[in-house]
Specification:
The complex is a heterodimer of chains A (322) and B (250). Chain A is mainly alpha-helical and 322 residues long. Chain A is 71% helix and 0% strand. Chain A has twelve helices and no strands. With 250 residues, chain B is mainly alpha-helical. Chain B folds into two domains: 124 residues, NADH-ubiquinone/plastoquinone oxidoreductase chain 6, subunit NuoJ (Four Helix Bundle (Hemerythrin (Met), subunit A), Up-down Bundle), CATH 1.20.120.1200; 81 residues, no CATH class. Helix content of chain B is 70%, strand content 0%. Chain B starts with 17 loop residues before the first helix and ends with a helix. The chains are: A mainly alpha (322), B mainly alpha (250). Chain B: Keywords: Cell membrane, Membrane, NAD, Quinone, Transmembrane, Transmembrane helix. Chain B: InterPro entries: NADH_UbQ/plastoQ_OxRdtase_su6, Nuo/plastoQ_OxRdtase_6_NuoJ.
Chain lengths: 322, 250
């Protein structure tokens, strides 16, 4: 009974985190972008700094009519947002935020594989949406999504493999536990490759070709309205949480910090995740969108060789220190 | 091997455990999804049902406590192979609704081959294991066990398989470079090391290329570039292909 309660409690906590953190990041994005670009933005809802604008947006999305285009493939069209969103919830289960078994939703033996595998499934949602919308812009968006995923899955996997080699385990809590401070310079190339490839998988700027509004309206999500559209947006922000959390856990030492790692380890994890999320937003307002061929070239010509070089370096150092 | 096999302890089939019931149910779902995959007339639906079938297989692995294999199954088959399949479908033809021409006259032959393959596999497995019974109380297929078995006992087959994959990669590069019949196809000349006169000019003005905002140009451009980059994995090939593409779209 106690076990069942424990599992239920963990699931509940992860679910609450899943519902709140993406919204926090969404709100941060609004405000950070507004400050960086000198835009005022909505400042009235709720009083101070327009804090309630996100709530108002949520109410607006909930009120809008849920439209399915006449020619669309109804069931696939309606199923797509769930397929896009749910994998991130599952991934969140496996990310440890503190030391010990108490600070992770579910200890998974092959955590790194689980996380990368399930994240790849989320892209199916975009593909389904793009195809089922019966709209050529949506289809183009879906195509671009697929091309992007195929190109960036490999460097991401290779970078993650490098850390797994360094730690000698594929379990996420195991990798954080094995972390030493000098891994930071050792794995820095892998970290950058992982983060950039993750950004591309999330279709965040500057890798937002699949939803390039000046070319194909909003890509695969063009035909979506109301709550289903909001679910896709939520999936994007949940993706940011997951990517930043994973980068923290794999490359930045998770709950390790200069001090207070025993009791306040989770603060370090959240802090590093928040800094990375800020960088994600920063990149969005800083860089222009890559063209499709530049996007592909970046992956195959730059990121894959860098990731392979990182793996070679990891292997050499690993053999040398043994 | 590390597998804990208790061959002599007789097990009854009349009092199945919860895991066994779940295994059979998931197996039925997987089988059903697989049958729909090959019988549905809607191309993309077939690919999506394939996801269900492959995912069901992953769940079966999980129920057998082979966690590592399960995640690799999801990563490779659901995450990559099906996405590649969908990409190919969308790039060529993926109508919404039924495709009347998506049927083949080879149905009986395909059925016969499928049944023969299934019978052979079942026979091999049954003959190999007979009445052996593996206890699943503690996980049997953890990453640790899988890794050590793979790299201690089965290193040679593993290496042979990787050579096979390498051969496939090389083959893909060779195939993607054969473009001699197409106008401006300079893949062969590049292979011989001779520079193509057209390529540098086409490469030097990317702005003209990006200025073509017509949708068809954009589509074929993105598809072509990503495809070549995908299969060949070499910057040179995708460059020359891209140059071809630029020539063609003018």
């Amino acid at each position: 009974m106690n076990d069942a309660l424990d599992v239920a409690l963990r699931l509940l906590v992860v679910f609450v985190v899943f519902l709140t953190l993406p919204l926090v990041i969404g709100q941060t994005e609004h405000k950070v972008m507004a400050h960086m670009q000198g835009r005022l933005g909505p400042m009235y809802a709720g009083g101070f700094h327009g804090w309630a604008q996100l709530v108002a947006d949520g109410v607006k999305f909930a009120q809008k009519e849920d439209i399915v285009p006449a020619d669309a493939d109804r069931r696939v069209f309606q199923l797509a947002p769930a397929v896009a969103l749910l994998p991130y919830l599952l991934v969140l289960l496996a990310i440890p935020i503190g030391p010990g078994e108490g600070a992770v939703g579910e200890v998974i033996d092959a955590g790194i594989f689980f996380v990368l595998a399930v994240m790849g499934v989320g892209v199916l949602g975009s593909l389904m949406a793009g195809w089922a919308s019966a709209n050529k812009f949506s289809l183009l968006g879906g195509l671009r999504t697929a091309a992007q995923l195929l190109a960036y899955e490999l460097p991401m996997l290779l970078a993650a493999a490098s850390v797994a080699m360094a730690a000698g385990t594929v379990s996420l809590p195991g990798i954080v536990a094995a972390f030493e401070w000098w891994w930071l310079p050792w794995q820095i190339v892998g970290a950058i490759v992982f983060f950039v490839a993750g950004l591309a998988e999330l279709q965040r700027p500057p890798f937002d070709m699949p939803v390039a509004d000046s070319e194909i309206i909003f890509g695969a999500y063009t035909e979506y309205t109301g709550l289903r559209f909001a679910l896709f947006l939520l999936a994007e922000y949940a993706g940011i949480v997951v990517l930043c959390g994973l980068t923290t856990v794999l490359f930045l030492g998770g709950w390790h910090g200069p001090w207070g790692a025993d009791g306040l380890g989770w603060v370090w994890t959240l802090l590093k995740t928040a800094v990375l999320a800020f960088i994600v937003i920063w990149l969005r307002v800083t860089y222009p969108r890559l063209r499709e061929d530049q996007l592909q070239k970046l992956s195959w010509v730059l990121l894959v060789p860098l990731a392979l070089a990182q793996i070679a370096l990891t292997g050499i150092v690993k053999v040398a220190i043994n | 091997m590390n597998l804990h096999v208790a061959a002599d302890a007789p097990q009854g089939f009349l009092s199945p455990t919860g895991v066994e019931i779940a295994f059979v149910l998931v197996g039925l779902v997987t089988l059903g999804a697989a049958i729909i995959t090959v019988t549905t007339r809607q191309l993309v639906h077939a690919a999506l049902w394939l996801v269900v079938a492959l995912g069901g297989l992953a769940v079966e692995y999980l129920l057998l406590t082979a966690e590592f294999i399960a995640w690799v199954q999801v990563l490779i088959y659901v995450g990559s192979v099906v996405v590649l399949l969908l990409f190919g479908l969308m790039l060529t033809r993926a109508p919404i609704g039924r495709s009347p021409d998506a049927d083949s006259g080879n149905r009986p032959a395909a059925l016969a081959v499928a049944l023969a393959a299934a019978a052979a596999l079942v026979w091999v497995v049954v003959d190999a294991f007979r009445t052996q019974w593996i206890k699943l109380d503690k996980p049997q297929g953890t990453t640790d066990v899988t890794g050590s078995v793979l790299f201690r006992h089965w290193v040679l087959p593993f290496e042979a398989l990787s050579v096979l994959l390498l051969a496939a990669l090389v083959g893909a590069i060779v195939l993607s470079r054969k473009s001699k019949d197409e106008p401006g196809g300079n893949g062969r000349q590049n292979r011989n090391g001779r520079p193509t006169p057209k390529a540098p000019r086409a490469q030097s003005d990317p702005k003209a290329q990006s200025a073509q905002t017509s949708q068809s140009g954009q589509t074929s451009q993105s598809g072509q570039t990503s495809q070549s980059g995908q299969t060949s994995q070499s910057g040179q090939t995708s460059q020359s292909d891209q140059a071809d593409q630029t020539e063609r779209t003018r």
